[in-house]
Each structure stands twice: as C-alpha cells, then as structure tokens.
Amino acid sequence: MHIGRDRRVYMVKSRAVPEDVLRQAEEPRIASATAVRAALAGGGRGTGRAWVVGKPELLWYPARQLLHPAWRVRIHRTKPRAEVITYVHAVTGRVISRYDNLAEATGRATVFLPNPMALARGFEPLHGTRLRCPPVSAYARVKLTGLRSGTQLNGRRVTTRLTKSRLRSARLDFSVPSSGAGFEEVSAYYHVNEAIAYLEQLGYRGPRRLFTRPIEIDARGTRDARRCSTSSGTPSRTPSVPTSASRRRRPRWGKASATTSRAASSPRGSRPTIAMR
User: Fold this and answer.
1) If 0-12 CB within 10 Å is exposed, 13-18 middle and 19+ buried, where does residue 64 land?
2) Contact 238, 254 (CB under 8 A)
3) Which one, 167, 177, 190, 195, has the greatest CB density within 10 A?
4) Arithmetic mean of pLDDT, 112-131
5) In the beta sheet, which residues pair with residue 158?
6) Which residue has the higher pLDDT, 98 or 223?
7) pLDDT for residue 95
8) What are the structural domain ranges in the chain?
C-alpha cells in the first residue's frame, strides 16, 4: 500500500499467488551458502575483491508460467566496479538471472504525478480563458532510471532520439518547468520507462520481456500548441503530449506512474515471497 504525503492511498499492490500456481511450485532444497558459491562463481571476471552484501533472500521467481524458489544474492566487486544481483534456483542451484545494478546511470527530473493539481491542491489551471503555469509545488522530483552513458535521454527501455532539439545534461539533471523547452521529453521518458519497469517486476523480463529494444519516442510528435501565462502575464509555451499521426488529441498534463518496490525477504523456514527487483 502506497500513501502520499496527504495521507491518501494512491496505490495498492499484492504479492498474492493463485493456489493452483502455488501448488505446482517446488520447495527450496539448497542452502543459502550453496547459492552464494554459485553466484560468486558466475559473477564475471575481475581483478578486484568481491563480497556478498547483506543476507541472501529466499524468493519466488516467476518464469514460464510457474513459480520457482530462488535465492537472491547481491555481490559487490571493486574492479571493475559492479553490484551484481544474481538469482540462483533453490532446487537445481543454477543461475536463473544476473544483472549489474551499477551498469546504468540514474538521472533527475521534475514531472507531474499525474497532473499539477495532484500536489498543488489549490492550483486553478484556468484564469478565465487563459491557461496558467503551475507553481513549483505542483512538481514531483523523480529519478530517471536505466539511462545509458551520455548526456541525453537514451535508456535501456526508452529513448527520445526521435525528438528534435533534444535536452542535454552532463550531470543528468533534466529538471525543467513545464513552460521550458524539453519538459514534454522528460515526462515522456519518465512515465514510459516507469511503466515498462513495473512490467519487468511482474516477471516480463529476460526471455519473457515484451520489448526487445528501447521504445523510440518523438515527444513533440503533434502540431497542437497551447500557451500558458506566467505570473507576470507573459505567455509561455506548455508541453504537448506525443500523439499518433492518425489521431490528434488535446495535450494533457501527464500520466500516472507506477512505483517500484524491492522484494521482501522471508524468514528462514518460511515460504518465499514473489521476486521483484
């Protein structure tokens, strides 16, 4: 359950598993020490030190319409620097999945979640027939995950390479107001990237992934244009939302995002929980 600062519930999730699926799942057999050895053996080559961070977690790993008991082992390496997350099958001892948690960069941005009125409760978007610019309190500070190396919004899941006059930031700080150039590009990257990340948590990754390459976005793929008025009365351009060529829509302020959560650990001797990155 997710509760906002205003103490309102805005999202409820559950790790409940259907009984028919749970009945087909095997019980874990190997100990955590065996899983750690398997994770260290296949953690990649390196000349630096490697050690396990925290305690291995016993989880349910969804794959091929079944639940598999698995140990989640987190390994830190110094050279090359890496934080390898490995899932080891708790019955066979083989490695199910492995990824470097530090291989991707994380940027920063400010977006609407899901619109300016959600955080700025007293904000009135219209003043007569004139569209007003949202106040600072209307923005949420978010992280842009999955970014590749570089200064633009190119990520493992999403890229805005089809967008003209793209934003650049050497510090990966893409915080711009809605009246500034690039706000629609940042919003498009964030919301689409978070949606795909949530699908990955549900098990749609690896051979079950829905997208085999980054989704390409043209954040200004519409000719609709609207303007808002600043506090001084000066008109300012507002972002437009990407639309298809066959159907034009009025621009919206933004879309709801999905939050992510890490897998909860199970006490020793208890049933595993669902594995979520």
Assistant:
1) exposed
2) no
3) 190
4) 90
5) 215
6) 98
7) 92
8) 2-98, 105-237
User: Whole-angstrom Cα distance, residue 158 to residue 156?
Assistant: 6
Cis bond upstream, residue 80 (ω within 30)? yes
pTM: 0.51
The residue among 265, 242, 261 whose CA lies nearest residue 252 is: 242
Confidence check: pLDDT of 54 > 80:
yes
For the chain, the C-alpha Rg in angstroms (whole number) is: 22
Q: How far apart are CA 96 and CA 63, in angstroms?
A: 9
Q: Which long-range contacts (CB under 8 A, 24 or more apart) does 10-15 make?
A: 11/258, 11/259, 13/261, 15/264, 15/273, 15/274, 15/276
| Average pLDDT for the chain | 79
- Which tens digits make up the pLDDT trace of 125-184? 898 889 899 999 999 999 999 898 678 999 989 999 999 999 999 889 999 999 998 999
What pLDDT, on the 0 to 100 scale, is given for residue 2?
Answer: 75
Q: Is the pLDDT of residue 44 over 80?
A: no
How large is the greatest C-alpha to C-alpha distance in the chain, in angstroms? 69
User: What integer pLDDT is reported at residue 261 of this predicted model?
Assistant: 37
Sequence-distant (≥ 6) Cβ neighbours of residue 224 within 8 angstroms:
240, 243, 248, 249, 250, 251
